[in-house]
Specification:
Elements lengths: L1 H24 L21 H13 L21 H9 L11 H10 L33 H14 L29 H7 L7 E2 L2 E2 L15 H9 L18 H4 L2 H12 L3
Antiparallel strand pairs: 1-2
Helix pairs in contact: 2-5, 3-4, 4-5, 6-9, 7-9
């Protein structure tokens, strides 16, 4: 019995000492505030700076390199898109309204199916439907100025003339520090908010870059679904290359949204 009490006393003292040490000597870890979206001072921006902005968006917020890269090969490379634009505008398969390379590039971002490069269409559509999401909607949601900046970057990349000036005075949506979109209330809202349908067939969306998720709940358990969102390269679906899906959805979603999404996927049967 004495040994038992000694163990209890020792355990309590150890916990108390640890608590004192933790509160007195270990500095508190305060989470960083939400990042403040960079303000665009278009009035003072030069064209080289505007092109640099386009490059930053292309490699970052626009998520363009997830598909347009020589490793994944899920979409055409864009280094020469400005040069190839004129021949594509004359192609009988072209369904858009663009008249020049600048308009063609912008149109391809807003209406990806206006022209689909041979071999890169949704399977079974004879290259008439593009799997590319509309980059002005969903989780990407580029505004008009950001679209124009990417166009300028791609034109410069292909050595083509940029037939427009930096768009002065156009409104640019800015996110105030600490401001965040309201949390989604249903699994379907989570899918829409984070643009899942841009790549996956899910919740009425017809994405074709990633695996079909319409009946994923009948094939995979909840643990797999959680892991697939948090660590998408842990289990790669057959026929799809790794490195396609962003790995930061776990950071972007609230805990409630994550739970709603997993439950929604689990019930998709």
């Amino acid at each position: 019995m004495k040994i038992f009490f000694r163990v209890i006393v020792f355990s309590v003292l150890t916990i108390v000492l640890y608590m004192l040490f933790a509160t007195q000597y270990i500095p508190p870890i305060n989470p960083a505030p939400p990042p403040k979206e960079e303000a665009l001072n278009l009035g003072a921006m030069t064209m080289p700076q505007f092109i640099a902005l386009g490059e930053k968006i292309f490699n970052g917020k626009g998520t363009c390199t997830l598909c347009h890269n020589p490793v994944v090969k899920r979409a055409p490379l864009l280094e020469s898109v400005a040069v190839r634009a004129n021949e594509r505008l004359k192609d009988p398969r072209y369904k858009g309204k663009a008249k020049n390379p600048a308009d063609y590039i912008e149109e391809s971002m807003r209406e990806p199916s206006a022209y689909v490069v041979a071999g890169f269409g949704v399977t079974g559509t004879n290259d008439t439907v593009s799997p590319m999401p509309v980059i002005t909607a969903g989780a990407i949601g580029l505004n008009d100025v950001e679209v124009k900046a990417v166009v300028a970057y791609l034109l410069q990349l292909g050595g083509a003339e940029i037939p427009f000036e930096v768009p002065r005075g156009q409104p640019v949506a800015e996110k105030k520090e600490g401001q965040a979109a309201a949390p989604a209330k249903t699994g379907a809202e989570v899918v829409k908010k984070y643009g899942c349908g841009g790549c996956h067939k899910i919740a009425g969306e017809a994405g074709a870059i990633g695996p079909d998720l319409t009946k994923i709940g009948a094939k995979r358990n909840v643990e797999y679904l959680r892991r697939a969102v948090l660590d998408p390269d842990a289990d790669i679906a057959q026929g799809f290359p790794g490195g396609m899906m962003p790995k930061d959805f776990g950071d972007k979603m609230t805990a409630g949204e994550f739970k709603l999404l997993v439950e929604f996927l689990a019930k998709s049967k």
